[in-house]
Amino acid sequence: LQDVTVERRQHLQSELFASILASEELEVVPGNAILDEQHDFVISIRAKRAPMVTGEAGLAALEVAERVLSAMRISTWHAPRKAGTPVASPSEAPAALPMTPTPQPIHPHPRKRRRAG
């Protein structure tokens, strides 16, 4: 990449999603895909026809999901702490850290609480 001219780099950046990694917007119907697959499976048994999603396709989807989960377990997240020290696990990532309590407003006159009954 160091040998690429500035003009070529700018051209690649501008054309990246237009021609190299072309994208397409798809219309998606809201719903629960897994529930729909299970429903279709039950109907296919009753109708004695093949389900829309085959067992092989379901197995392939599970294998992909397992690979994603495995990669997530293996990966380390680098927090901006001591000179790039990796975080030991995803549970230590900022999203999982406890939040600082929100300061409560100080009332000049404490509210009186009513007693039940």
Notes on the protein architecture:
With 117 residues, this protein is mainly alpha-helical. It has a domain at 31-76. Helices cover 43% and strands 0% of the residues. It has three helices and no strands. It has helices spanning 6-20, 33-47, 55-74. It is extended. The N and C termini lie far apart (77 Å). The model has no long low-confidence stretch (mean pLDDT 75).
Quick check: average pLDDT? 75
In quaternary terms, these chains amount to single chain
Sequence stretches where pLDDT stays below 50 over 5 or more residues: none
Order of helices and strands: HHH
Largest sheet: none
DSSP strand count: 0
Give the number of helices.
3
- In whole angstroms, the N-to-C terminal distance is 77 Å
Overview features:
43% helix; 117 residues
How do the helices and strands line up, and which of them pair or pack?
Elements: H1 6-20, H2 33-47, H3 55-74
Summarize the structure.
This protein is 43% helix and 0% strand.
